[in-house]
């Protein structure tokens, strides 16, 4: 993702630029953060994954080449998280003859389906890219709300196991942004008394069920130490549920959370006053948005006697609600991406997953789904 100094020099040479050479004093030592490999990674909206990856008969080779190129630039292929709002709508029908039947309800969301049924061939999409590790997001939203949701978990763990068991599993995920479950603008899936304690008990119920099925269907992931989760995948730090309270309620009681995943958007597609210069190309705004996560994570570190898993952005991008044309899909937003990712690395984030879905407006071009 980031060009080396040599490449920068070459680019400048090619552009024939004459650079002034200001000198900046560089401190002899500074705090360092050893980020993980594939530092800039991606998150693909659950319902968009078949578009981005294709399937056995129609693999999306464009995406494959793109990921190869990004891997070569960065020294390691990006990790792919498959999840997002639509993971918590996904039910399962084993007779569906194609990957995904999505129905959009504009009164809930215009950019993605809120009724989602996947079939067995959904899992073919995990087989189209070389040497990529994935996280698969299971449905806690409906899983803890109705029996068809719970049944989807029982039906799809064996399929996800088969698709990812053989060395492709990065981590599992159970629930996307559960801090919004009782207040979601796309329709709540929990009553008003939804709490950290209830969340933690439902998360344990589901993740223990997943582990029991993993034991049966892909025990090699347990033996190789690859079983584990990214969690809590909260949308932010100011919502109805709070990360430190979820941690204090025993979220990691089973010690199987491998990545402490939180989400961030700098602002919203329709938030008043959002501009390219004032919002995205404004380092102070980026810094403030990232720093609140460090404050929250530090609270957890100071309250926890057990080790806390490393911090990642499991989902992030510029403007929530899929971005806004003329702002989040411009080259200025690309500069924001460089600033955001470098700043996050400088304060302790180990990996960042930039989020994208079919026809979302958070990219200069919709790279994966061309
Ligand atoms: C499952 O999919 C099949 C094939 O599309 C369809 O006929 C059937 O009605 C679906 N079942 C449910 C419960 O939606
Ligand atoms: C594979 O992808 C093609 C192209 O999108 C689609 O027409 C076909 O139905 C898919 N096959 C399955 C089994 O989902
Ligand atoms: C697709 O989902 C819609 C909404 O749930 C349903 O009415 C339709 O029958 C489904 N189609 C198939 C082929 O299952
Ligand atoms: C399921 O979601 C509905 C809102 O869609 C909510 O009223 C209900 O309390 C939820 N049930 C459970 C068991 O969480
Ligand atoms: C939360 O509310 C639901 C119904 O809205 C009720 O069934 C449940 O017992 C309540 N839970 C708690 C912990 O009060
Ligand atoms: C887990 O949740 C499912 C579905 O709501 C329920 O059937 C099951 O009894 C729960 N298990 C425990 C141990 O709470």
TrEMBL record:
Keyword flag Transmembrane helix: no
GO MF, one annotated term: hydrolase activity
Keyword tags: Hydrolase, Signal
Signal peptide: 1-20
Gene3D superfamilies documented for this protein: Glycosidases (3.20.20.80)
SUPFAM superfamilies named among the record's database cross-references: (Trans)glycosidases
Full protein name: Glycoside hydrolase family 79 protein
Organism: Thermothelomyces thermophilus (strain ATCC 42464 / BCRC 31852 / DSM 1799)
Lineage, uppermost ranks: Eukaryota, Fungi, Dikarya, Ascomycota, Pezizomycotina
């Amino acid at each position: 993702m980031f060009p080396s100094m040599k490449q920068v020099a070459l680019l400048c040479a090619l552009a024939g630029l004459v650079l002034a050479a200001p000198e900046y004093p560089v401190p002899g030592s500074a705090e360092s953060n050893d980020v993980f490999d594939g530092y800039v990674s991606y998150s693909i909206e659950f319902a968009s994954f078949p578009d981005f990856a294709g399937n056995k008969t129609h693999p999306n080779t464009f995406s494959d080449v793109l990921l190869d190129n990004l891997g070569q630039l960065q020294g390691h292929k990006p990790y792919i998280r498959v999840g997002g709002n639509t993971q918590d709508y996904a039910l399962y029908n084993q007779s569906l003859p194609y990957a995904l039947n999505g129905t959009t309800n504009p009164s809930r969301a215009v950019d993605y389906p809120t009724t989602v049924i996947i079939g067995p061939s959904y899992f073919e999409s995990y087989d189209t890219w070389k040497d990529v590790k994935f996280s698969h997001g299971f449905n806690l939203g409906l899983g803890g709300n109705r029996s068809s949701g719970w049944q989807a978990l029982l039906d799809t763990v064996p399929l996800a196991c088969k698709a990812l068991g053989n060395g492709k599993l990065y981590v599992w995920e159970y629930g996307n942004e559960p801090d919004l479950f009782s207040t979601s603008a796309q329709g709540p899936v929990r009553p008003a008394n939804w709490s950290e304690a209830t969340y933690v008990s439902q998360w344990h119920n589901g993740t223990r069920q997943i582990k029991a099925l993993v034991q049966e269907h892909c025990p090699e992931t347990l033996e190789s130490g690859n079983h584990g989760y990214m969690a809590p995948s909260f949308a932010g730090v100011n919502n109805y549920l709070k990360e430190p309270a979820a941690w204090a309620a025993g979220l990691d009681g089973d010690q199987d959370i491998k990545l402490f995943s939180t989400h961030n958007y700098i602002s919203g597609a329709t938030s008043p006053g959002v501009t390219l210069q004032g919002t995205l190309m404004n380092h102070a705004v980026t810094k403030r948005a990232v720093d609140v996560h460090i404050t929250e994570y530090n609270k957890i570190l100071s309250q926890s006697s057990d080790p806390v898993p490393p911090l990642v952005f499991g989902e992030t991008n510029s403007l929530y609600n899929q971005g806004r044309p003329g702002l989040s899909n411009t080259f200025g937003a690309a500069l924001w991406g460089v600033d955001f990712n470098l700043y996050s690395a400088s304060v302790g984030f180990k990996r960042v997953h930039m989020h994208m879905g079919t026809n979302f407006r958070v990219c200069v071009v919709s790279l994966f789904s061309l």
